[in-house]
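Practice problem: predict the structure.
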Amino acid sequence: MASSNARNYDIILFGATGYTGKLCAEYITLKLPADLKWAVAGRSASKLSAIVDELKPLNSDRRQPGIETAALTPEDLDNLVKRTRVLINTVGPYHLYGSPVVEACAKNGTHYLDVTGETPWVLEMIKKHHETAKANKAIIIPEIGVESAPSDLVAWSLASLTRNKLSVGLREVVCSFEMKAAPSGGTLATLLGLPAHYGVKQVQDSMRPWALSPITGSKTEKAKSWVTKILGLRSVPKLGLVTTSLAAGANEAIVQRSWGLQDNGKFYGSKFTYAEYQKTNNRATGIASHLFVVMLLVALATKPVRWLVKKLVYAPGQGPAKESTKNELLELHTIATADQGGRTTKRAYGRFRYDGGMYYLTGILLAEAAMVLLQNDDLTKKLGGGLLTPAMLGQSFIDKIRNAGAIVEAEMLPDE
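Answer:
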């Protein structure tokens, strides 16, 4: 990475005029250090100026952000990313607009963060830019928003706890995921666009177990009963009844990559598996949720359905009104089984919870991850560079988001 002295900014927020970008800019203004050197960036100088004007009353004592304009051209992006230590990218869908940004950061040694949930695109970026980013010491972390930081951080916390307490890895980790929130226009545009851009088969291939991991782990499908495969239902001790989750594919893929990146899977354990489900209250709603997810994924693979849905949802850059998000919720309950011999099986419990707007949480995760990269030279040197995952930021990241209002817990359970 280029010397920080040669860079004008600590952070550039690219896409600050979009729905998620505005919320991230608001959080930076309110919560990050007042002397932070940062800028908002995008295509329209007038829109960026309007955002800066909106931010000033929130914290008039802090350094105001610079304004940088850039189009999605190699020349503009090279010039942009060379001016900052960390680039936060909120311009989606990423499979349409993110690739040249990642390429510019990888080759210019600029750390990069985004909030995609587009697993096929992440796989494409790994194949194209991991080695370049590693060579140039650029830390590239996609999916550091609601997808998939909470899942990844809880799994890492449980692996760390079990290593510290028992000196063993994990055999099985199961997560119950609950989210009450409305999607933004960008999220819906992404969901609609992936099958058309990559094709159904390529999307499916990217969701295969361990597809994002640098090495292949344990098989997970044998653990699923016919009830789970056909009806989506599974009863998990300590978690209760769970069903198919629409978010599971993206989250599982990132957790599996974290497994492979950390000491070639040895830190989490050679027999490690991770499965994520949605919380459900009873069998009827669980089956209905499972069938809805299956039918939705099948339907979105067809052009007429995608055309119809586009007419009914928020446009990209738009989202739910801020007031309506106050009662939103994200909560994960996770049970991990230690990989140890003997008659007694040790288990650990992990939890993540955030009350409030999910896209504001995304802004928190982006901003605080950027601060970890800026403030922890020892960590960045240890990580080196490449296409990494939220969990690679470790305890420093967890501590920051706890201070921002999230609950992140991990504890050993009593022997049964």
